[in-house]
Design a protein that fits this description.
alpha/beta, Glutaredoxin, 6-stranded mixed beta sheet, 5-stranded mixed beta sheet, globular, transmembrane, transmembrane helix
Length: about 425
């Protein structure tokens, strides 16, 4: 029996040592001890953060897999509440924060906290910013793996320098490649070289400085599919493109006939009128409404259409029913020409109102899970406020009594002098 327990204990200790070898605990000395060419994937956490604890097993899986692949990426984690110097160096503002540190440059991860998504980010950022495609097979493989990819075609030029600079800045968001002309399929028509070609939505588009403006801004605008499923992480990232986001909100499961019709209608308009709207709008559908509910501070009826302005937390709603293509086009045109007014926003009043709304939702959720804790959170501040009011009233009453006593004493003194 003793041998069995000893074996189990030994196995546990061995697993713990293996896990610790995959993920290194970092402290404030990291910036002095790291190598100039080191690449680190770091998770900043707080001991009390529940989201950080949920990420722990995923983080150890990432460390284990990168180690087994022989990746040059070192995986670490740091308690930001204890190692405040390191957290300040990386400008950590929330938990968990995931950052890649590569050759003295910081790359912040803002996607889903899943193993596959973080691994994709790690492979993309840790390697060359612009990957070379040397054969048609490699090109087809890249096309099968990525919904959106930018490819530079041609010899060395100023355009290639601009492309490389854009890739270094935007590598956290999308994929960059280079290829010779004969690597691309013959059906891809390029009128001149060098060229930057965008592949997405089953087709391709060629960059034109005259039409599209600065290369980096064009890449940033076009790094999402024209129509796709959007979650809260993606919606937040879309705000960085400067575009409005045209959404159709749908049920998560068992979509009704009307939801299916709305989705098809939005997708058709996004495809058929791409040239008209792609510079101003991104299109997609959401099967979750928490973010939009918080934006509008009410429960959104689904299915429904809404246009969101992520730059100022504003939103636009149709002024009437939208059941046809013409009605949807009128809605989008009304947003662009200003005939449909933006609601919401991030003004002081809106921020305070949104804070109250979010607090209300939090308390409702907390009450459903733990009524006693919710009651304590509400009663404790009230009790503290009542206690302070009591102390203030008592202090004022004592002061009034002292003043009355002083006045009485002075009155007696005056009376005594008059008697004399």
């Amino acid at each position: 029996m003793l041998d069995t327990r000893s074996s189990v204990l030994l196995s546990v200790l061995l697993c713990a040592s293996l896990v610790s070898s995959f993920v290194e605990e970092l402290d404030d000395s990291f910036m002095k001890t790291r190598g100039d060419d080191d690449i680190w994937l770091i998770k900043f956490y707080a001991p009390w953060c529940s989201f950080c604890k949920q990420l722990d097993p995923v983080w150890h899986q990432i460390g284990s897999e990168l180690k087994s692949l022989g990746s040059p990426v070192n995986v670490g984690k740091s308690d930001a509440t204890a190692n405040t110097g390191l957290a300040e160096e990386f400008r950590v503002r929330g938990y968990p924060a995931i950052i890649m540190w590569k050759k003295n440059v910081k790359y912040v991860y803002k996607g889903k906290r899943t193993k596959d998504e973080i691994m994709e980010f790690t492979h993309r950022v840790s390697g060359p910013f612009v990957r070379s495609l040397n054969s048609l097979q490699l090109f087809q493989h890249a096309m099968s793996r990525h919904d959106v990819m930018f490819v530079y075609v041609g010899a060395t030029s100023q355009l290639k320098g601009n492309f490389s600079a854009a890739a270094e800045h935007l590598i956290v968001h999308t994929n960059f490649f280079s290829a010779a002309r004969d690597v691309l399929p013959k059906v891809i028509a390029l009128t001149s070289l060098p060229a930057v070609v965008l592949f997405k939505d089953g087709t391709y588009f060629t960059y034109s400085e005259e039409r599209d403006g600065e290369l980096r801004l064009w890449i940033n605008r076009e790094r999402f599919p024209n129509f796709s499923k959007i979650d809260s992480y993606t919606l937040y990232a879309m705000g960085e493109t400067g575009k409005l986001v045209s959404l159709v909100l749908l049920e998560e499961k068992n979509m009704c006939e009307r939801s299916v019709r709305y989705k098809v209608l939005m997708e058709k308009v996004a495809a058929d009128y791409r040239e008209t709207y792609s510079r101003n709008f991104s299109f997609g559908f959401m099967e979750e409404s928490e973010y939009v509910n918080g934006l509008m501070m009410k429960d959104v009826v689904m299915p429904s259409f809404v246009v969101v302005n992520l730059s100022n937390d504003g939103y636009f709603l149709p002024q009437g029913p939208v059941d046809t293509e013409r009605q949807l086009l009128d809605f989008l045109n009304g947003v662009l020409d200003g005939s449909i007014q933006c609601q919401g926003g991030n003004g002081v009043v809106q921020r305070v109102t949104r804070l109250v709304y979010d607090s209300k939702l939090l308390l409702q959720s907390l009450y459903g899970k733990s009524p006693l804790l919710c009651f304590f959170l509400l009663a404790f501040p009230f009790a503290i406020a009542t206690f302070f009011c009591y102390l203030c009233c008592k202090a004022r009453a004592t002061t009034d009594e002292d003043e009355d006593e002083d006045a009485s004493q002075q009155s007696k003194t005056v009376t005594s002098k008059k008697s004399d």
